[in-house]
Records
---
Amino acid sequence: MTLTRRNFIIGSAATLCVAGLVEALGHFGQPKAVPGTIPGASSAVGHKLRAQSFPAPSREVECEVAIVGGGIAGLAAGYHLHRAGLRDFRILELEQQPGGNSMSGRNEVSAYPWGAHYVPLLTEEATEARRLFEEFGVITGYDEAGRPRYNEYYLCADPHERLYRYGRWQDGLIPALGVGAEEEAQYKRFFAFMESLKNRKGRDGKRLFAIPLDESSQDREWLALDNLTMTEWMSREGYSSPNLHWYVNYCCRDDFGTTSAETSAWAGVHYFASRNGVAANADAGNVITWPEGNGWLSGKLAEPIGDKITTGALVYAVTDQGDRVTVDYWEPKSQRSTRVNCRAVVVATPHFVASRIIRSKTWSFPAEGFSYAPWAVANITLSKLPAGKGAPLSWDNVAMNSKLLGYVVATHQLTEMKPLKTVLTCYWPLTHRTPAEARAEALRRSPEEWRRIFLDELLKLHPELDGQVERVDTWLWGHAMIRPARGFLWGEARKAAREQCPPIFTAHSDLSGISLFEEACTHGVRAAQNVLAHLGIA
Amino acid sequence: MARLLLVSVFVIATCGLVYELIAGTLASYLLGDSVTQFSTVIGCYLFAMGIGSWLTRYVTRNLLGFFISVEILVGLIGGASAAVLFVLFEHVYSFRLLLYFIVTLIGILVGFELPLLLQILKDRLEFKDLVSKVFSFDYIGALFASILFPMVLVPHLGLVRSGFLFGILNTLVALVVLYAIREEIPASRMHKLSAVVTLIALCMGFVWSEKITTLSETSTYQGNIIYARSSPYQRIVLTKQAQDLRLYLNGNLQFSSQDEYRYHEALVHPVMSAVASPRRVLIIGGGDGLALREVLKYPAVESVVLVDLDPAMTELFSGNEMLLALNQRSLLSPKLTIHNRDAFLWLKELQAKSDRPRFDAIIIDLPDPSNFSVGKLYSVTFFRLLHTVMENNSIAVVQSTSPLVARKSFWCVNKTLEAAGFCTAPYHAYVPSFGEWGYVIASRQPYRRPERYPEGLRYVSVETANEMFHFPADMARVETKIQHLDNQALIHYFDDEWSKYLIY
Ligand SMILES: Cc1cc2nc3c(=O)[nH]c(=O)nc-3n(C[C@H](O)[C@H](O)[C@H](O)COP(=O)(O)OP(=O)(O)OC[C@H]3O[C@@H](n4cnc5c(N)ncnc54)[C@H](O)[C@@H]3O)c2cc1C
């Protein structure tokens, strides 16, 4: 008889069967059902816009300026009005809290994002975002070379990213394991090319690919990329590496909620070639993030203007009355409608909403050509941190063979050495069907189904987390982000939508055709500046 | 016959007490707080013996056969008790329940022994004679056991092996009685068989006891594991081999009791002796109380704040007699305040307070920067926070891994402290169980070496310091990056350098 741990334990357990029983009791507890909710978005309320059967306003209020929508664009507009000394304005927001796609939640374990979760080091053109970053203490100063110094607590902590493949985690997101020399060479060529584009200028002296997007060069030669898809462009340029294709597709889904086969090549290249931000105290590739993601930024924007924000208010009509503008909103809670009389309005809702609610004699806002990607985001609260073979738990954790993009660890930015619990934010752009089909399917699924889907995906990567999941909350974004599909960015629809017709101004990242913090706040501040000019306030 | 049974009284008395001592010792090793463990184990054991004695009234027939069964069972259960407790320590839901269950079982069986023997012998001896003989053999056995246990058994055999040895003796009593006795015992064949099987099992246990103890810990530790516990934060393992007591956290050696004085003297005294009047001291990490022991050698010290994440550590080192002896009860000092908090969070919270305390000396005794979690506490951001609790003439020190094995790592800590706005004074000491070890002093004023150290130090002195602050060519400064939260260069250096060093 060989003495093994097993034999020994079995032997002892036989002698001490009662002790064994006690042990067994400890191990085989009843598996609990995992709780969770779907707190938003308020699609049912939003859908009422189609029928437009709202009660007539039962009261009227006055104010100088109204802002419709409290996402980043709306908040930035309000923040700027406040900055300029204007106090008589209101922000009307459909959801129960402001933030829009940059909304966040919080439980006993951590704050966590419901959507946007990071901002890369700012490009030189992103002046409005930079000004905000200075005011919020995200940028604390500049070095002699003029490079911004970022607050260390907000720079994404090490380790940044890891990728799951072949049963283990590797460092970084670019597939490294099992990549041959030919693929390696393509990687090199691809990234060297993108790097070379970063500071390249077009014939008009502007950077080819800039953030904000409308600061980009209008050089025809490069704009023509918009008429190809990213996949077509890659084939044209001789990129055949499946791993590279996977990576580029991942990036397109991540930033645009759109596959690389549908994304405009201009947008795809923009993703890699626009971000030329540097820092005095961080590597160029690093990003800025917080436990609550960009919810931190929306919180900062809302801080000085909190008393001006009305939440739970669905704006259903913004009408140019000639001498004034009226903004009508309905509150599902009280089932009452209110009319706001004002001198100017910033409509900071997605474009498809703006086109529904704006009534102007001089101008129509067609929504044709604007297409939106649906997303599902789950926040999974865990009583144990995920582990895994290979590279250690990182901020962004991506699995190569998963339909989800992966998960971001909310507690990663805490300086705490070893948080015992955490929240993971799992992202899933619903690109497996057309946006309309995927949207309908998402709304049909029951909360249990959603919990199951996210749990299954997580447990595939982390079987060790079975039984450690405290809750799974899901947010369904029906119209999460504008899709920069082929031809959209430099086509007619976006151009028409950008036109402004005072006293109604528009501000939303949709107007850029790509959904980014820098875009949203640029539009917000610009709209506020236009409003101030319109009202004759210096 | 009567004489044989009296000898067995002596043997079983010794065995009985040994099992009790084993259970008590093991409980205080594994659970700490020896006073409580010993009292409860002894209480439980004696009470169980009472139950056993009381139950003998129901045994009316075949007394001898019953006695033999009891001996075999005591041999088996008592003999294997230490091994079972060790191995199952990590696996059972409630270790205490198992412990008291086994203690009670043994107690009941041992409780049977004397009353049974008295009954068996009552027809063969005069009552007066009987009682006096049986009880004196019993007490002699107890004395024998209590002397044997600490002097011979624990140091030379260890608990597990001692357990098996006395189990064997117990079973032998049963076998000898079986063979020596003429009278008919029903099912004597069965008794013989089970006694032999038990004997063989116990002998195997005795031979392989070493293996059994390692079964309870997958990683290979030198020495016997006497304590192992997974706190939510880390795995704490204490081992003992001869006089050498070692602490491992997550498998990494933290100290060896044989030479830890070198490490801790070198960590503490160059700072403490350089501060004119070290009244308020902060220790970060160091939940073992050993750095604190050195700190308390300064009468000027009025208060010490110790911030260690893991309550399991500070509790272990303030509850276990053996460990209290090692840290000279430092963790029980009335000058001490313990915060079981994350040091980074704790400091960040203090930073926000205007009435935050300041410290004259700060000792940072954290695990090596071997992963991204601890790495945060070696970052320039963390070091910068130290300023907020320092005066202009305060001095801090950071244990900084081996400058010989991990040269870049060491100098990276140094450079990071410089980047955090400190003047640094790097030094090193030789600690046999670790190798050449490094520390970096950080202060706002340039550091001046002390001219005097406390009396009675075994390693640090003005002369050794000359050696300590000198860096030979193989450890001399190298250029490195700075450790940032968002780019933990130190972790990569550390990983790289230690993985090349296979001797460790
Ligand atoms: C899952 C996800 C992840 C993302 N990740 C990132 C990221 O990491 N980094 C990044 O920069 N960007 C990210 N984004 C893009 C994000 O959309 C932008 O950063 C930014 O938040 C957009 O702000 P916005 O104000 O333009 O639009 P929105 O956030 O859409 O704001 C519009 C607001 O209007 C409100 N509204 C709509 N209709 C009405 C109505 N009728 N009445 C009243 N209010 C109304 C909405 O509730 C919303 O609050 C992400 C987006 C999603 C969906």
---
Amino acid sequence: MRLADWTEIGRMDELGRMDSPVHRLDPRAKVLVSLVFIVLVMSFPRYEISALVPFLFYPVGLIALARIPMRHIMKKMLIAAPFALLIGLVNPLFDRQPMCSVGPLELSGGWVSFISILFRFVLTVSAALALVAGTGMYRLGAGLERLGLPRVFAMQLLFLYRYLFVISDEAARIMRGVRLRSVGSGALGLRVYGSLVGQLLLRSMDRADRIYQAMVARGFDGEIRLLQQSVPGWCDAVFAGCSLILLGAARVWNLSDLLGIWLAGGVS
Amino acid sequence: MHMADALLSPAVGGTLWAVSGGLIAFCARKVKQTMQDHLVPLMGVMGAFVFAGQMINFSIPGTGSSGHLCGGLMLAILLGPWAAFLVIASILTIQSLFFADGGVLALGCNIFNMGFLPVFVAYPLYKLITKGRHGSPLAWAASIVSAVIGLVLGAFGVVLETTASGISELPFGSFVLVMLPIHLAIGLVEGLATATVVSFVFRARPEILQAEPEAGIRIRPILVGLAVAALVIGGAFSWFASTHPDGLEWSVVRVSGSEEVAGSNAEIHQHLAGFQRKVAFLPDYGFKAGEAEEEACDAWPSVSAGATVSGLVGGSLTLGLVVLTGLALRLRPVRQAK
Amino acid sequence: MSIPAVAVYDLSYAYPDGTEALRGITFTVEPGLAVALVGANGAGKSTLLQHLNGGLFNARQGEVRIGETVVSRKSVSLVRHAVGMVFQDSDDQLFMPTVAEDVAFGPLNAGLSSEEVERRVESALERVGMTQVRERPPYRLSAGEKRAVAIASVLAMEPEVLVMDEPSANLDPRARRRLIELLRSFGHTRIIATHDLELAVEVCSRVIVLDEGRVVADGPMVGILNDEALMEEHGLERPHILRHMHPHT
Ligand SMILES: Nc1ncnc2c1ncn2[C@@H]1O[C@H](COP(=O)(O)OP(=O)(O)O)[C@@H](O)[C@H]1O
Ligand SMILES: [Mg+2]
């Protein structure tokens, strides 16, 4: 976790608190559609590319409607890419069966499946990022809880999110103190490391204790209650219904192919 | 190492989602049952601590590089297994949602690999060895051994899940050969970091570690859980194996006349494959994806050039449409945010 | 004479590690009065405040009464609704994901209807002038806003007694000024632990000086704070502001 990562979380958090048609949708509708989207995308055979293209409409639509800067999502995808890229790049090495040719260029099965892996990566990652940036962690957590996520889990997830910045500020303070007193690189000897992280740990536990005191002082009895959330409206139903139908259609029919065939038929 | 969506088939991802989801529900009930109200804020703050603690690095003795705490074993030592599992699951959830580390479909796998294995396999081992003597040389050894075992098992999980999904072409054996040494090293670092921090805490505030988080875990339910998980996963595996007995490997050999196709790279492949035949307990079994793919495989050679071209043209056009739609949606007048 | 809003009789308390934080504290506070609790670090102020809110009652000696209620294991939830506690670090107190959820936390625990909860959230936020940050997450607020919201989260429980631990710590001058005005405007019984003697002078009419877990002085603000010998003996400093306020200096 580097400092840049923290600003990233902050940025996502800001995006999640904006106001847009996407943000106003019920989180449960968005979660449901996004899950279906991801499963459908992953369910394609591994040499599929063209049928995946229409699926781009979903994340791109969400991102555009939610006014999330496309650049931001792209940057995050680039950072997350290496592992999928690395494993995917092995495919062209092992699978050299020629599969299709584009003009003079002959593509092996490995390259096709590699491109397909990249495509899936772009689709699923952008959909997940769009979901978070277009919903916000709090609404997402509350929505998941209403979808049946165990309450204890949902609540400590929200606590984790709430205290991320507080604890990381403390960690940053500790590190500043160390840097002021030491010369050379940031990496520490094991002994110093143990006492710094240990101190951070003890402070965190003390804080948890004070938070618990504060909760008890306001009548906490083991059950955390949230404010009444809005009920899903027809907007949410329309969004979920249309998205699911369109996604289903794109899974059943290769829409790109159909478009190509239709165009070719029209021309000839 | 985070398992990634792009390498995962829905069946494998779904199976592990179900396993991890069940574990979350189970652990949540356990935490609720212990009626330790203070645990919920403590869990949240400890999750934040693990995130924040990763800002602090130490130089790994004998190498030029530096490492930090991942925290799985540490959380189990401090919070007990049930709560620790939930905290790790939420850390991974945040990572997948905010950093696209892994991804949503792969979250189940990641929770299993990095939550279940360290907490319910490595931690009991740690407890068994240390018997509460934190800070002793024995505890150092225990923490290193169990961290290594937890991480190596996790890496093994990644390999199994990837292979079972059949999206990646990477042979099982060579994947294992790549992953295991890396995770052996990461495990060493993790064990060292955990032991250092735990012994600091033990010296400063021994009562934190002495207060056993809960009655302790009984080994039997965990073994039962492991067995069930193994059965479920094994079942999923054998289902794949049976729907797809030979996989692509065979067809590649048949179609391309095998070894001659590839030049120098094939040598590596052969080498690795040979080694793997000696090492791996599973032969290089092409657990490839489901039926849909089988059709596609069979269909491919007979696909006419026209279909490929239409796919290409249609695909590019669709892509263009996507871009246009995105731009159009964005050009709407900005409504003032509140 | 009316029943005191808060009454403490011979209260002693030692932490589990053996630290004797309170040694025989006795005082009463009349309803509607504002009392400052001053004393050097470690004098026992925070520990005392926790007792008033129904904390730490396990290992204590002596008696604490809130109105007619004796604080005990049975009455503790009643006491927690009657005494609102504002903690020293607002980050500890604002633990919910949004300001509105945080202010609603107490009323929801009290089992109020959702309309009543909504009314209380709205009026508490209005009282402290923070309606505009309603949907914001607490960590996005300034220190002054955090403090105001923390006070709102306590006001929403409509307590009779407000107990505050160093409310002006970490505030910039303007936020501190607004806090003072806010505290002056309340009609609740207020017990405020503070190092900020100027705030104490402006808000409170009476002061209790603690040292090493004992009450060493208790009386009208101006008289005690002007007693330079007493103040110095207990690690305090006579506030500057009094030099202009008191005719005999
Ligand atoms: N949780 C605790 N465990 C043990 N001792 C404590 C604890 N909290 C406070 N103390 C001790 O109790 C005494 C009173 O502390 P406190 O009430 O916080 O003082 P103040 O708020 O006036 O600075 C101090 O000596 C302090 O060290
Ligand atoms: Mg104090």
